[in-house]
Amino acid sequence: MFHNNNPVITCPTRFREDWLIIENAAKFAFDEKTKWTSLSEIKLLDKNGQSAGNIDFVLVAYNDKGQLIDFASLEVQGVYISGNLRNPFDSYINKPTSKFAWTTGYNSPKPDYLSSSRKRLIPQMLYKGGIFQTWKKKQTVALQKSFFDTLPKLPTVSKEKADIAWFLYDLVLDKETNQYNLTLVETVYTDFEAALFRVTTPEPGKLEDFINILQDRLDERLEGYSPDTPSLTDIISS
Question: pTM for the complete prediction?
Fold first, then answer.
């Protein structure tokens, strides 16, 4: 979808153009002479045999006998949409035109970067990524750069020391074909624990603002509202 005149990838299938995400992930995970292939939607189990979810892609390295010798993960994350998508869709279907524009205002569809990270990306890194980290296996993530830019700034390391490679893609317009092409624009290398600590630690607001909220609620309570907890007199009388 377009947001602020920029294309935003909302479906992870869009990242499969020419399978760039697989090739770039393999370059980080393995030596260039390594024989490898990719397997999709592989179930991951925890110690108790319970499902920890599916890995989008597992890159597997093998020897001349076809025996597996190493593996790495690739997670692909699009962006959720908030707002009402059905109404604009119905409106377009009723009168299809290249000049169609979604109305702005209440409940208008837009990218929901916050939910995409808090409800999807971060939980995946905590659980599935934690298992791969315990196994000391490399991890890769494919995201659109506009999504990555909404995350806290991650501490970086060299490629050789990295546990995770963040491959940041964008849709770049080819003016000759008038088509958007998936293009790798940046790669960020991080340590697993440092990156996870950064994305799961919220940046606190001003202490004064929270104190003001508490003071306002306290003022309301002291003006005659019933307390949430019983007073000493209430406890004794009961």
Answer: 0.81
